[in-house]
Amino acid sequence: MLLADRHRGTHRAAGPGGLRRAGRLRELLVTGVLDSFGMALGWTFIVLIGTARGGLGEAALYNAAMLVGTVLSAPAAGWLSSRLSGRRLLRTAAAVELPMRFLVLLGVISGLPSWLVAVLIVVMHTAAWAGYAGLRAEVTAVDASPRTMTRFVICIVGVEAAGTALAALLPVGADGTPTGWLRHAVFTVFLGTLLPVMVIARRARIAPSASVFAPSPARGRHARPGWRLPMPGLMLAGGGVMLVAAGPSLLAVPVTEELYGSGWVAGAALAFCAGTLLADKAIGWMEKLALPAVLRWALWGLGMLAGWILAPLYAPFVLLAQFSAGLATTAFEGDMDAKVAAEATPGTLTRDLAYSASVRALGGAIAVRALPMMIAAPAIGLAASTSALALGAMSLIAWAGLTTMPHLFRRATAPSRP
């Protein structure tokens, strides 16, 4: 439930702490941008140091640990949100993540065993993604429209790319470790950018809902719905779109490097960022079509794939591919989070948004792992064509079902929403 009262017939709503709607959105946005920049900067150094120290194997271990933490963050966020208010959830997650950031970065610099660093990374990313779900829930509590959520995602994705690029360009030693003043600066930014989360948490609007884990006569005395996949249809559809469509864009760096050399890698990254900036307008255009969610998401998936069909033929097509992928991926994430927020009950909002991010991450991770096992870089266009055909076929089937047999797609019991 929300703790803020809104003035009737106006958007000038005063929330906790006296902040109005626009002010609160700006506060949440700036906090998310700072936090994401610090995480991207520090995480890039962690991966680079791990690669220099133990090769791709150690870097892969750290990325696998990140995925495990992302998946675990969903049930963790559900457990926390059922017991804590938005204020305490954000501060608890940040209080766990802050020392983990320090220990992980110190661990890779000082040469701790990679398995121990990986365990710390799991804890760090579990707390980080649980806190991110809480932050997105606060954004939704102020304005749950798809365009607002998409704008939030645009800023996060853009600043993460900036943090990653900056970390890659900064001078480091032969072992990938920053030295001197740069090491102190990296620690300061990595840790300090998390502090604003604790500050803005005092005006959080989300209240705890003990009913998330309460026994339900319909589910049984010992049922614990907070640990089950919520909205399985929506979640599986979102994860499926990432599984089918996100592989080429997520592998853009190694594929572009192999096809055309490192000179085009930076251009592809910039093109992806440029695409994210137009996601807001794309969401507005899509809203006018009033399409069902499953069809909108399929179109976003086709946008992720379209440019990669031609990318192996001519180097500049890589820029077009990543521009389209940046636009479609960002719009899809904002669209999916807004849909999940609209379907969630107030007490499960934070948990459901955490699951939304987890299933997307899981789908993308499987795609990244499976695609190189099936094809080489020059065949990426064929893979994109096949995936686009499969996604298009599924879209047509869904369209036919929604128009000719809507009762099959309607929930058995549709709860009334105010």
UniProtKB/TrEMBL annotation:
For this UniProt record, the keywords arranged alphabetically read as follows: Membrane, Transmembrane, Transmembrane helix
Q: Which residues form a coiled coil?
A: none
Q: What's the domain of life for this entry?
A: Bacteria
- Signal sequence, renumbered to the chain: none
User: Where do transmembrane segments lie in this chain?
Assistant: 28-49, 61-80, 152-174, 180-201, 234-253, 259-279, 291-311, 379-402
The name of this protein is MFS transporter
Q: Which organism is it from?
A: Paractinoplanes deccanensis
Supply the source organism's classification.
Answer: Bacteria, Bacillati, Actinomycetota, Actinomycetes, Micromonosporales
